[in-house]
């Protein structure tokens, strides 16, 4: 494949233009159908000068970050040419305002590695590329100094973190699906204090809550919860923590999430399966929770018949596929009812129920209460 075709195709995939410059930093060619205004590339010269100054020809690739957007400069040593991937300025004629066209750092690294391999026949990992872009020795020294100062301050204050043994009991409760044991771990008293994860108190509490949710999600998976389901729930809880306005609201969200995971594990203890087909079927179900899922569709994806799949699923899971889908969808709606501002109708539509009334009747059948009353009783009250 010619380099021109490769770069044109790559530019379309990553959705940012790629530019080629000669050794005098003159623009030779650009790839990708993007804004061609000269002002769009006015930052490229700055990047090229930084690349030459900072790398001193030691590294073939360097990643640059500015205003949370990324660019990469790649040196073609054979031709003594430079390629730039990433951020440009786009000029909107209507608003006459500048905005950025960019992509994420992982995509930038992958694209840079591909271009460099084409020129040099050498493979580079994302880690290697990123390591080119910072002074590793300087960073390690700064980290050592920071840790030394931080540890000294802790020792001077004479304070300790909350005990690790308490965290072990808390997470073990989730893995076991033991609600009573979990509540007892919440009620433990200890002399230590919670970690400070930001200079801003509310942000520190949010960061701590996210850490607890991440650990609890892993504990739930270890307890038997399907990873896709666990991560979907975790994402929802973390977003609500990030939106919280008070420390009390954060605490309530995190504690309720831990209890929710624990109860899911308790429900799972009644059945387990090692049948690979059933594991794959459940994986498909959890990945398509927002759509209408049929036995026929599942069977087609699994290269089996509907009757065999239904019979095997019922034997392994002690319920029909339809019952399993409804039950798991309803469990997902619990999170939205408790933590989101979505209407009942929106939640019903989001999880693929035929109507709000259909969702309501199924919810009441399983929970002996309506979705609205469930939200009133268990939903997070704003501003508490």
Question: What is the terminal-to-terminal distance?
Answer: 62 Å
Shape: globular
Q: Oligomeric status of the shown chains?
A: single chain
Number of helices: 17
Low-confidence regions: 91-100
Assign the CATH architecture of the domain at 3-134.
2-Layer Sandwich
Largest sheet: 5 strands, antiparallel
Q: Based on helices, strands and strand pairing, what is the structural class?
A: alpha+beta
The CATH superfamily of the domain at 3-134 appears as Dynein light chain 2a, cytoplasmic
Give the strand content.
Answer: 5-15%
Keywords:
7 strands, 60% helix, two-stranded antiparallel ribbon, Beta-Lactamase, Arc Repressor Mutant, subunit A, alpha+beta, 17 helices, five-stranded antiparallel beta sheet, 384 residues, globular
């Amino acid at each position: 494949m010619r380099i021109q075709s490769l770069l044109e195709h790559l530019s379309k995939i990553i959705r940012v233009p790629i530019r080629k410059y000669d050794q005098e930093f003159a623009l030779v060619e650009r790839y990708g159908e993007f804004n061609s205004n000269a002002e769009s590339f006015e930052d490229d010269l700055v990047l090229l000068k930084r690349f030459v100054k900072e790398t001193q020809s030691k590294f073939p690739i360097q990643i640059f970050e500015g205003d949370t957007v990324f660019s990469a400069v790649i040196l073609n040593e054979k031709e003594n040419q430079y390629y730039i991937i990433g951020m440009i300025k786009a000029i909107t004629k209507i608003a006459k305002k500048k905005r950025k066209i960019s992509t994420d750092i992982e995509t930038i690294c992958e694209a840079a590695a591909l271009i460099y391999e084409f020129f040099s026949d050498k493979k580079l990992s994302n880690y290697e590329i990123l390591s080119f872009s910072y002074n590793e020795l300087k960073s390690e020294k700064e980290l050592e100094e920071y840790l030394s100062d931080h540890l000294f301050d802790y020792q001077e204050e004479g304070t300790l973190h909350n005990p690790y043994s308490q965290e072990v009991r808390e997470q073990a409760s989730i893995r076991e699906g033991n609600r009573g044991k979990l509540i007892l771990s919440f009620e433990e008293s200890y002399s230590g204090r919670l970690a400070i994860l930001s200079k801003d108190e509310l942000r520190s509490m949010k960061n701590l809550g996210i850490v607890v949710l991440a650990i609890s999600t892993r504990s739930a998976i270890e307890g038997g919860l399907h990873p896709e389901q666990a991560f979907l729930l975790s994402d929802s809880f973390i977003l609500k923590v990030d939106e919280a306005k008070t420390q009390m609201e954060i605490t309530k969200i995190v504690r309720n999430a831990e209890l929710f995971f624990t109860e899911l594990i308790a429900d799972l203890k009644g059945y387990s399966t090692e049948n690979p087909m059933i594991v794959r079927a459940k994986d498909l179900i959890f990945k398509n929770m927002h759509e209408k899922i049929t036995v026929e569709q599942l069977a087609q994806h699994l290269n089996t018949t509907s009757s065999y799949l239904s019979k095997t699923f019922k034997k392994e899971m002690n319920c029909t596929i339809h019952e399993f889908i409804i039950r798991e969808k309803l469990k997902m709606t619990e999170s939205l009812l408790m933590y989101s501002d979505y209407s009942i109708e929106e939640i019903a539509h989001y999880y693929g129920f035929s109507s709000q009334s259909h969702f309501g009747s199924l919810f009441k059948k399983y929970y002996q209460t309506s979705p609205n009353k469930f939200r009133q009783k268990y939903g997070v009250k704003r501003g508490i």
